[in-house]
Amino acid sequence: MAGVRVLVGTRKGAFILTADGTRRDWHVEGPLFGGWEMYHLAGSPQNTDRIYASASLGWFGQQIHRSDDGGTTWSPVGNEFTYDGDVGTHQWYDGSQRPWEFTRAWHLEPSLSDPDTVYAGVEDAALFRSVDGGQHWHELRGLRCHESGPDWQPGAGGMCLHTIIQDPRDADRLHVAISAAGVFRTADGGKTWQPANRGLQSGQIPQPEAEVGHCVHNLARHPQRPDTLYMQKHWDVMRSDDDGASWYDIGEGLPTDFGFPVDVHAHDPDTVYVVPITSDEQHFPVDGKLRVYRSRTGGGDWEPLTNGLPQQHCYVNVLRDAMAVDRLDDCGIYFGTTGGQVYASPDAGDTWAPIVRDLPSVLSVEVQTLP
Amino acid sequence: MTDPATTTAIRVHLPTHLRKLAHIGDSELTLDVPGTVTLSAVLDVLETHYPVLKGTIRHHGTDKRRAFVRFFACEEDLSHEPHDTPLPDQVVRGTEPLLIIGAMAGG
Fold first, then answer.
1. What is the pLDDT of residues B89-107, one digit of tens each?
2. Is residue A51 part of a domain?
3. ipTM of model
4. Amino acid B105: pLDDT
5. HEC states along A18-75?
6. A310-314 average pLDDT score
7. Given this model, what pLDDT does residue B107 score?
8. What is the CATH number of the domain that holds A87?
9. Which range marks the domain in which residue A53 is found?
10. Which of A320, A333, B58, B72 is most buried, most CB within 10 Å of its CB?
11. Which of B17, B69, B103 is the closest to A35 by Cβ?
């Protein structure tokens, strides 16, 4: 019987939650890498035994670990992320120019086609790639060296490249999102990049419609309709139907359009999920009610999903990488909270139940659908 | 000048996270350090024996100490000493260990 493996990264280690296709009874394993900040774990779409994990600590820096047996055993691989060539500078909080400095890998994105190829989005914002299973990392420097680079500046969480979207039609085509620079895309495997932020409006920057400078929080794409992208921005939920060339607002009907994650139903490109929170100053659900919002029409028409979620006194947040969907027929959806709960819905969001309630603050959730 | 062909057994304490990372069971290990016993020489040997520790104590490329790592010996903080400074005699003689510490942080 098919099953799922949920990979949970937390502030104090990683956890692996497994269940069969009913997703009723869960086995919880962890903490793995106890004490390390696990920004992200991700499995290869081509080989579910291959999992990459990003572990970091303020004291001892970055580690990348790899499992080749579905998370049973792990080995450290390469942890050297050296910017390629002239490091250059970006804008700092006080307006001064500051050299790029590696802090951590926020997001790992295994290739759609090759288990040994994996991308890493890092802070300070840059994109790295390994083609040998994580042993060695090479920067795709065209992104950081974009002419707008000196104008990029960090958001409150640091200047991080946190989202990497691959195009199922062409391995050379990628979108990335950077806080707070915005979306960039490449069609030549990362040699050259173009901003892809037309249509975004951000009241937090001097020019609300600037080409670069937007605090994009997350992107999602459905492989069956790859020209359509969904975005959760600092404020605003947006959609593009032209591969990111332009964006329009689909947040009408949400209680607030501030949030972090966005994801798409595994089998329906028009069904999209967000988790609205109160505001940029209050990172918790509106009125203490934890509600996932679902649109079955590609945005603009939203319904709250509450069955099984706390509807009073709930003041947790759901971070940008902490929501994921499985690929079973009824599309399970999962998210983790800063309060340490991981919720699962086996029916595309209609009903929810916690898998675990008391983990450390959850940074990321990914799901592997097992044969 | 110490003969570079000779080695000195140096006791080194590592923090728990790094011992686990390198699969070092004991809290203290002994490293045979060639030549003059300096912090750099000890760390070079440590990283040669345990490559996974590269980048965890000092930065890749620059070899600068990571900000939240401290080096203590003989009740002295050596963190701000040049890394090519000879370590204290007690460390060289093996009566005292070199302590590699994760700095206090948190609240």
1. 999 999 999 999 999 876 5
2. yes
3. 0.92
4. 73
5. EEECCCCCCEEEEEECCCCEEEEEEECCCCCCCEEEEEEECCCEEEEEEECCCCCCCE
6. 98
7. 55
8. 2.130.10.10
9. 36-167+186-211
10. A333
11. B17
Please state which architecture CATH assigns to domain B7-102.
Answer: Roll (3.10)
How far away is chain A from the Cα of B6, in angstroms, using its nearest Cα? 31
Q: How many domains does chain A have?
A: 1
C-alpha distances in Å from residue A193, one per residue of A41, A62, A227? 26, 27, 17
Assigned token pair, A103: 């802090």
Please list, in sequence order, all residues whose beta carbon lies within 8 angstroms of the beta carbon of residue B2, skipping any fewer than 6 positions away: B8, B35, B36, B37
DSSP state of A95: S
pLDDT given for residue B104 in this prediction: 85
CB pair distance less than 8 Å for A76 and B52:
yes
Average pLDDT over residues A124-129: 98
Instruction: Report if residue A27 sits inside a domain.
Output: no
- Cα B31 to chain centroid distance, Å, stands at 9
User: Do residues A193 and A186 touch, judged by C-beta distance below 8 A?
Assistant: yes
pLDDT of A353 higher than 70: yes
User: What digits encode the pLDDT tens for the residues A50-83?
Assistant: 999 999 999 999 999 999 999 999 999 999 999 9
Residue from A11, A33, A60, A75 to probe the interface with B (highest B Cβ count within 10 Å):
A60
Considering only alpha carbons, which residue of chain B is nearest residue A36?
A: B17
Over 70: is that where the pLDDT of A8 sits? Answer: yes
